[in-house]
Amino acid sequence: MTDEAQLLEDLKSEKHKEQAFRTLMTLYKERLYWHIRNIVKSHDDADDVLQNTFIKIYSNIHNFKGESKLFSWIYRIATNESITLLNKNAKQLLISNEELQDSAITNLASDVYFDGNEMQLKLQEAISKLPHKQQLVFNMKYFQDLKYKDMADILETSEGALKASYHLAVKKIEAYLTKN
């Protein structure tokens, strides 16, 4: 039995669920945090989304059918929770998602948890100008070095579409950085 299969079995077992969940959190907490942080930009929002993600995983693990990797399912939940938060924040502020992204980038420069230099801030600006799906694809490939197969499972789309999205995102980012 693979480690993931054993972890999943333990997560679904009432006897081992608590310990298995702690193991799951140890395995995925940091990676998920950075995945979420690349989407929502804010440390505080990323912490909130991470907590919500783990609550959803804990509450819904019995619904996981094993049709994808556990890793992909977890990332899909984190991605959806991140998007939900962005949409909720934009709606509360009565602004578009693009305006919310611009605001997040502006706030990133003063964020004590952002330790990037000016070039990294410019890269984040360039990424924020991309269509939402291209942002997700670029962040997942560039920052997390996920395989297209895993990204296809997480985003529920084809590898070919992801490769095209990544290629377009890179071209747009290069053009933005050249102009700015």
From TrEMBL:
Domain RNA polymerase sigma factor 70 region 4 type: 121-173
TM region positions: none
InterPro entries, sorted: RNA_pol_sigma-70-like, RNA_pol_sigma-70_dom, RNA_pol_sigma70_ECF_CS, RNA_pol_sigma70_r2, RNA_pol_sigma70_r4_t2, RNA_pol_sigma_r2, RNA_pol_sigma_r3/r4-like, WH-like_DNA-bd_sf
Record's keyword terms, sorted: DNA-binding, Sigma factor, Transcription, Transcription regulation
Presence of the UniProt keyword Transcription regulation in the record: yes
Keyword Secreted: no
One GO MF term: sigma factor activity
Domain RNA polymerase sigma-70 region as annotated: residue spans: 25-90
Single GO BP term: DNA-templated transcription initiation
NCBIfam families per UniProt: sigma70-ECF (TIGR02937)
Family membership noted in the UniProt record: Belongs to the sigma-70 factor family. ECF subfamily.
Protein name: RNA polymerase sigma factor
Lineage: Bacteria, Pseudomonadati, Bacteroidota, Flavobacteriia, Flavobacteriales
